[in-house]
Design brief:
Radius of gyration: 17 Å
Helix content: 25-40%
Order of helices and strands: HHHHEEEEEHEEEEHEHEH
Largest sheet: 8 strands, antiparallel
Distance between the termini: 38 Å
Strand content: 15-25%
Shape: globular
Number of helices: 8
Number of strands: 11
Strand order of the largest sheet: 1-2-3-5-4-6-7-8
Structural class: alpha+beta
């Protein structure tokens, strides 16, 4: 039975919000392969994605045609879907490669998905104070400065764009008080400590890692 974002636990609502029609997460195995390719820090061609996924190029083209928000470069190569080569406020460094994410929550569970630790830096959404943390694929958040940082999270029921409705409101803030004005602009928004947000995000990584069609192929 599907879970409505309006019911169930916060973790359930997160999964429901990001797996609506038009999201790459409706094809978790293929999306996992794409994320691991993007983690190399280079644009991904359809041919590369098809080869890594072990599927025909035509099938890949058909699948990603339904993914709204996918970012492409001028050569038609994929450069981002939540994990991106295009700069955003959320800097996500992996093995010396500078990547970015669409929202704060992405930075917490992508290390488990790509199997690599990441150093994260993102400005407070109210004060621009840098929020710096390290996230390990297994241990989770291992360093955090400032320790008072929180993450804003929404769980929209109906979205045309996952990035606009779910990702863009998701920011880091230096303190809970600093986030109050932002929260007031987004009814239903949750403010979680970074540790709480990490725990809430774990089903998002489990959803991708639990799909047996993915290949261990991409991050050297």
């Amino acid at each position: 039975m599907s879970i409505s974002p309006a019911s169930g636990s916060l973790a359930d609502r997160l999964v429901a919000s990001v797996t609506q029609v038009g999201s790459a997460r409706t094809s978790p195995g293929l999306y996992l392969v794409l994320l691991r390719l993007l983690a190399r820090g280079e644009p991904v061609t359809i041919t590369q994605l098809a080869a890594a996924a072990g599927q025909p190029t035509e099938a890949i083209q058909h699948a990603i045609a339904g993914w709204r928000d996918t970012e492409y470069d001028q050569q038609g190569r994929i450069i981002g879907y939540a994990l991106t080569l295009r700069p955003t406020p959320h800097r996500f460094s992996v093995d010396g490669r500078q990547l970015y994410t669409w929202c704060a929550l992405d930075t917490l569970f992508f290390p488990a998905v790509i199997g690599r630790p990441a150093r994260v830096e993102s400005p407070c959404g109210a004060t621009d104070l840098p929020i710096c943390l390290t996230v390990d694929p297994e241990a989770g958040v291992t360093t955090l400065d400032p320790a008072t940082a929180v993450v804003s999270i929404v769980t929209p029921e109906q979205v045309d764009s996952v990035r606009a409705a779910f990702c863009n409101p998701g920011r880091f803030f230096a303190t809970r008080d600093a986030a109050r004005e932002w929260q007031a602009k987004h009814p239903g928004m949750h403010l979680l400590s970074v540790a709480e947000a990490y725990r809430a995000s774990r089903p998002l990584s489990a959803m991708l890692l639990g799909d047996g069609t993915a290949h261990e192929c991409c991050v050297p």
